[in-house]
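Hello again,

I reread your note about wanting to compare the complex against the isolated chains. To keep things tidy I'm splitting this into two emails, and this first one only covers the full assembly. Below are the input lines as submitted, including protein chains and any nucleic acid or small-molecule components. They are followed by the predicted structure of everything together. The single-chain runs will come separately.
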Amino acid sequence: MTDRSFLEAPAVEVAPRLLGAVIRHESDDGVVAIRLTELEAYLGDGTDPGSHAFRGMTKRNATMFGEPGHLYAYFTYDMHTCGNIVCSPSGTASGALMRGGEVVEGHELARARRSTSKNQHDLARGPARLAVALGIRLADNGSDLFAPPFSLELPHAPFDYLSGPRTGVSGEGGTEKYPWRFWLPDEPSVSPYRRHPKA
DNA sequence: TTAAGGATTGACT
DNA sequence: GTCAATCCTTAAT
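Full-complex prediction:
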């Protein structure tokens, strides 16, 4: 069961089922595992203007068109790395952006990487923070999340979740058209909603 | 070749 | 609440 099979659906269907999943990354420094509490879905078939893949495959987003279950890591504002879980069969771009989570293993290492965070819930509240805490680097783009140094443990049963407009995406105007942000209720590690500053 | 913008965060008023 | 940091990717000459 491979857990990988259900990732072949569009991200809009996959993202809510990834809530509560635990992603683990082992590096030279040690192991950090994070339970995902917040994700956003991005499609690439031309219907999603907020997606990097909206205008077709480019050098940067090629990973999103690849095998499901792999990691699409990208750089934004030059200071932050974010991680997506690639969905949909190879050839179709679709991904679930990991926006927030709770550190369940390797707290000390996560804290060391995120020295500015003040409390446990800030360690992975926000996409770039989560990537830093987990140890994702741009070089990890394309890595298989079901093979070392990564692993991905899916929840045994679906969780109850909430959904709403995506955060920080430009070019959507009314983001209500794309209520593809999913999060678990009552989780302090879910980032607060923020519109895009220029939207 | 050149110019414009960004799936954000952290610091400061 | 507002604003700067900072360089890579994409789109347009």
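For quick reference: The mean pLDDT of chain A is 90.

B.
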